[in-house]
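MODEL INPUT / OUTPUT PAIR
PAIR INDEX: 1
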Amino acid sequence: MEEKLTRRQTEEETGQARLRLPDGVRGVLPRQSLARAVELGIIDAGEFKIQPSSIQPASIDLRLGEVAYRIRCSFLPDTRPVEVKLKEFVVDELDLRRDGAVLETNRPYLIPLIEELQLPPDLGGKTNPKSSTGRLDVFTRVITDQSFRFDEIRPGYRGRLYLEVVPLSFTVRVKQGLALNQLRLSTGPTRLRDDEILALHREQPLLYREGKAVPEKNLATADGLFLSLDLRGDATGRAISFCLRRPSKSRRVTRQRCPHMTRRVGSCAPTTLDSSIRALGSMPPAVSTDRVQPSRCARTMFPS
């Protein structure tokens, strides 16, 4: 009787039972499951309420806490808590409340995040930068207590999350509550085998070329599906890339939408760009290959 009760309690503590997931389900959790995880305290922000706007179709935004630590170099905590090992690397401490603080280029910072996790034993997670963070050329990755890998959260993890931030091209001003990264929770294996990828492509084509589904024999699979870059363009002279102007001032990272965007952040009109890189064979000889950054839209999204 006692053994049966213990087994039942264990089953009820699983994420599958608490989130009311169908039997045998596997993969990344969708919005409704993430919202329930917030209600149950699996994802918790203490006195800071997690707003519905933070929950995306398959991820949840992670927000910066009130302090940023400038550190000597990047590190992993190995078998120790992050806060213990952090003491060996701290150079300075910045207050992110009120007006926030400026993060300098090519210097690593570690920022405790507002959100914390209380994961059941069958739920794990992965983190990645938001697309707006990538467009600013800000390098970010998450670490957790007693961890040996970046951006991976082991099943059953209970504790805080810490974000390493390194501005690569220009200084940025950040403040408490800003979301630079996002979290995905998953249960069971999340990757499709090659035969499953091919079967899915037959049922619902994954790749297209010139408006038609790519034949299965032309798909390149090897523990995943490979994609290729189109560097040839077409007969109309379609641009394959754009060269943007480099800003000189630091940017304040906000959530303001750029009025020059026709649909969403990231779909910048080509008229705001310096020049375009055409298909190979007709590339302007004066085009620089240096890393460049947004100009007009960057100033609007991230005003100085």
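PAIR INDEX: 2
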Amino acid sequence: MRTCWIGFAALVTVGAASGAEITATIVSTGPGNPFAAKIIAQSLLKAAGIKLDWREPACLRIQLSELTPEDLRPGALGVSYPYSGCSKPITIYMDRVRARARTSAHEPVLLGYVIAHEVTHVIQSVDRHSATGIMKANWSIRDYDSIYKKRLQFEPEDLLLIRHGLASRSNQEALAIRSDREHVPPKRIRSGYSEQTLWSSQPNF
């Protein structure tokens, strides 16, 4: 049985050197190179005990969308599906990220944070946002300032939910392997396509 989620049993403590690994790829037809954003997203997730491996073939597909219609989730920077695992791609509205960043220096930093935010939703497998930090639904002006200084972090409850999400997927994987051997349908954790959206707050100048 092929699985996209690798090494869940290796996650002992959040932030450990040998954490869980997820493979991902970015698909983009727009301008620019997301290399710097990839490094930033890797660094943020590494601090939470996740190794984000950019390679093909990949479990998780991240689409950088351009020319986003104004009436499509107005103000949203990205959308992910916490209950779908790797079966449904993350979409990041790159044109909105670019407009919100305003400068070329800020753009890869903001994109890296948006990637980390959406990937974490998929890992946590819960339909929620935090009141503060990286997993906040609507970043404030102060949050953006912390992002551009690379200071915004995960909150403790987010780290705990990451661990719970990894443990749940590890149990699912074990059940699936067992069912392959015994020809018994595996038990499934809640499924569905409930979406999580990261919104861009509007500055009050």
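PAIR 2 NOTE: Confidence is low (pLDDT under 50) at residues 1-18, 173-193, 201-205.
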